Amino acid sequence: MTSHDVINIVIVGDGAVGKTCLLHRYSNETFLDSYVPTVYDKEDFELMLNGTSYNVRLIDTAGQEDYERVRRLFYKEAKAFILCYSIENRASFENIALKWIPELKNIENWPIPLVLVATKTDLRDENLRGRPLITTEEGEAMADKIFANRFIECSAKKNVRIKAVVHEALRAACNGPIERNEKKSSGSLCSIFSCCQS
Fold first, then answer.
1. DSSP class of 161
2. Is there a domain that residue 172 lies in?
3. Which residues form a coiled coil (predicted)?
């Protein structure tokens, strides 16, 4: 992979977990208040990483079962995946391992680098009713389980760590997938700090 190649990063996860809000916040620096189901959307960017410019295409996909065939069209060219779940939606979290990883494992060029992303973390500050939310520790354990290159918690509403999600996905695309026998600690990996190779 060279810096001139278009690096496709595909965003997947259940419907209504905040995938489109993440893309919209990163590309337009605004927050979408209303939920509109997405079939497909994309944005192209030029990103700098370790002194090298990369052409990055972020692809937002539909999480509903009806659009599985559409999603798979974008999987073939993916260099990395951003797997999203909402901290307020236990089913979306469990579906990372039950639905999304099995679906991605059917890709011809699997394994592909993964960044696991917990969305809507602003709800922790607004959780006045004490609703059960997915904890950071649960997210880190899931990242270990699926061999994610990185685990990041973010909030599109508060614009917290949105850029980090995209930049770490690019870094993962450059570094390649995690070796399945590689030891991990505290939800992160030494390999994510190595430089991208052009």
1. S
2. yes
3. none
pLDDT at 2: 58
* pLDDT tens track for 49-61: 999 999 999 999 9
pTM equals 0.87
Q: Is 131 within the bounds of a domain?
A: yes
Domain limits for position 88 = 6-193
CATH code assigned at 189 = 3.40.50.300
Distance CA 118, CA 152 (A): 6
With respect to residue 1, please indicate whether it lies within any of the assigned structural domains: no
Number of structural domains in the chain: 1
Please, is 188 exposed, middle or buried when counting C-beta atoms within 10 Å of its C-beta (0-12, 13-18, 19+)?
A: middle
**Does some domain include residue 198?**
no
Query: How far is residue 144's CA from residue 189's CA, in Å, rounded to a whole number?
Result: 10
Please give the C-alpha separations between residue 95 and each of 80, 146, 160, 170, in angstroms, as whole numbers: 19, 12, 24, 24
Lowest mean pLDDT among 37-41, 178-182, 191-195: 191-195
Q: How far is CA 153 from the centre of its chain?
A: 10
